[in-house]
Design a protein that fits this description.
The protein is α+β, with helices and mostly antiparallel strands. About 20% of the residues lie in helices and about 30% in strands.
Length: about 575
Amino acid sequence: MDLILGNPAGLWALLGLPAVLAIHLLQHQVRTRYASTLFLLDELAMTGIRGSVIDRIRHSRPLWLQLLAVLLLTWLLIQPRWLREDSFQRVVVVLDSSLSMHAFLDRLWPGLGPHLRELSRTAALTEFILVESDPTAATLYAGPDLARLRDALAAWRPRLGHHDTIPALRMAQNLGGSGGIVLFLSDRLPEEPISGIAAIAIGERIENCGFAGLRVEGHGPEAEWQAVVRNYSEGAVRRAWWVEAEGGRNESRLLELGPGESRVLRGGFPPGADFVTVCLEPDAFPVDDRLPVVRPAPKRLEIEVAVDAAIRPLVQRLVGTLDAAEPAQAGLRPDLEFLSYRAPALPGLRANAVCFPRPLDDARVPLDGWVTTENHRLLQGLNWHGLLVDHAAPTVVQDRDEVLVRRGEKPLILLRTGESGRQLIFAFDPLASNAPQWPAFVLLVHRFAEELRAEKRAPTSVNVDLRQRLRAPVDPDGPPVMVRTIAHDGENEEEVPVARAALLRAPDRPAHFTVRQGNRDWLRGAARFADLREADFSRAASGGSVRERAREQARLNSRPDALTLLWMLLLVGLLLWSWWPAKGEAA
């Protein structure tokens, strides 16, 4: 049966022990002497003033009774409680998966271990559950062994950018149950206390300087990278930087940045090299000290224009705004067509196309009412309420058509899907409206073209953020996909079933990677850190305690001392007995 101190501050009462001893040391013992004559009184008075003030401790009943009373008083003040043998509790630890935790990995167990040991003493059996704030991650550990929990903690690495941790904490509360304890371990304390959550912070403000952005201009041999370096510290920093490529690295150069200053570094790709890594001298936060870059190679979008002469200049301007677009080869099916049709008939759905009506003349429908839009992926964030259209082409809406924009009850823009492709159909003449000057019109065509580009099966090279969703053009009926990651600390290759290829994400650390299916690399990329909030440690701090929660758990999982009343009566008896004069002593 384990003993718990309900009030550890009661141990201060033990100071009464030396106090009692001091009183008995300083108290001069009065001795009784009997004399038959009065002439001896003068001599006794003279000897009575001699001797030390501090006398030796003499064994006496009051001394031992008072010492015993101090011990009994201490026992009552510490409020002893006894753990119930059937007491059980669950402690759920939620680790902040933010990348900023990389700077404090060596503090995880020193910052968390003492709190867990304190909580483990508040119940006969404690189950520990270790999870992270990434809701898609598996449980790291579950069980009563703190040594195994420490091993799981040592192997853990954060991998998310700035994210909302509340859903994971609420899930942890459900996992802990009504009597469970939830601890949230982070590198900073929450701005506002979270109900039912004990927050523990293990961070501190550190000096950090790292890459904050990347831009690659041009394609092919003329491609040039531009890397933004930012100093997040309150003081000036000096960092060496260099570029690594296949076969070695160039000479280091010195970079000096003032407080909060940013600088742009520029460079090209060595001949024959498609991958480079721009490196900074490492600091306490290593995630933003390396910037992998790949030479971009977007998929080429082959386009065919077959429209009337009146609208051709507008279409050619639209095509000119598309990246990596080129005329389709004669005799081959293009990736995207721009077509004209005569309403109400539509061109056959033989390929992916953007369709515009020929001049309506008399075949037009007057419009009235408000412009409304559907909740569709192609229209997210686009404003069509300022579109000025007075007449539309007579259009027959088929069952599989999706009306994207309408005015009143008449459709203005439709998306038609079939086995041979998709058509973005404009049911009004753009030249008779303000559509060419309306941003939503151009962005809609761009989004439609980019969707087609993403679905095209062709090799591509891209620069992405950490854990960004990848759209690899793999064959759904082909062999498994092999994902190879090349980081500064080693290489890794993973086999992914084709059914899960749509869920692929970029690596969770700065690295180059390739996605291969069969004998061909369909996607080559470079994953970089790009979350500026995680690189700023101005709010990092240490703090937090579970002492109050531990006391509450100890009270719930224990029972008080059943003999408390007896000890109180015994204390009163000891004090009365110590003050009662012994036989032969003056009253």
